[in-house]
Amino acid sequence: MIVGKVAQILDDSLIVLNVGARDGVKVGMRMVVFEEGEEVRDPETQKSLGRVRLVKGMIEVVHVQEAMSQATGAQETPQPGGTVLSEKMVKENIYFGLVSKAHRMNVMREEMVGRKSSGPIRVGDGVREVS
């Protein structure tokens, strides 16, 4: 799996990534842009489970060089406000297109932490291959 970062923003339709041909990037490859959110701990052991990844958008690689690549926005994008990104959800394309069909669950409202807004794509945001 290819993982990198946004290295530069050329304009509102083209960004530069710090991964390229030497990393296995190919034209047409789809990636997700994300921001690292808050740390989550196991409720039983209190050990860190890692950080929540907040999706900022989907991109598609349009040009590849040895050490970098250029990407533009892909058609499928997450709903406004940012959401939790699961590798399984992205690989199986579960998240995109199904958000409006999600049903509310019976959860303890007092334990809800809320979703942090992920905001716009910035230099330094993570990118990860989705297919």
Give the key terms:
131 residues; Thrombin, subunit H
Write up what this structure looks like.
It contains one helix and six strands; from the N terminus they run E-E-E-E-E-H-E. By secondary structure, it is mainly beta. The protein has a single domain, classed as Beta Barrel (Thrombin, subunit H), CATH 2.40.10. The protein has a six-stranded antiparallel barrel with strand order 1-2-5-4-3-6. A hairpin with a 4-residue loop joins strand 4 and strand 5. The longest helix is centred in the C-terminal third of the chain and has 5 residues. The chain is elongated, with a radius of gyration of 16 Å.
Provide a brief overview of the structure:
The protein is mainly beta.
Rounded to an integer in angstroms, the radius of gyration calculated over CA atoms is 16 Å
Q: What amount of the residues lies in strands? A: 35-45%
Question: Strand order across the biggest sheet?
Answer: 1-2-5-4-3-6
Largest sheet: 6 strands, antiparallel, barrel
Indicate the CATH architecture.
Answer: Beta Barrel
Q: Quick one: CATH class? A: Mainly Beta
Would you count the extended β strands for me? 6
Count of DSSP-assigned helices: 1
Question: How many domains, as an integer?
Answer: 1
Q: Give the full name of the CATH homologous superfamily.
A: FlgT, C-terminal domain
Low-confidence stretches: 77-85, 87-101
- Structural class call reads mainly beta
Question: How much helical structure, as a percent, in the residues?
Answer: under 10%
Order of helices and strands: EEEEEHE
* N→C terminal distance: 9 Å
Mean pLDDT: 80
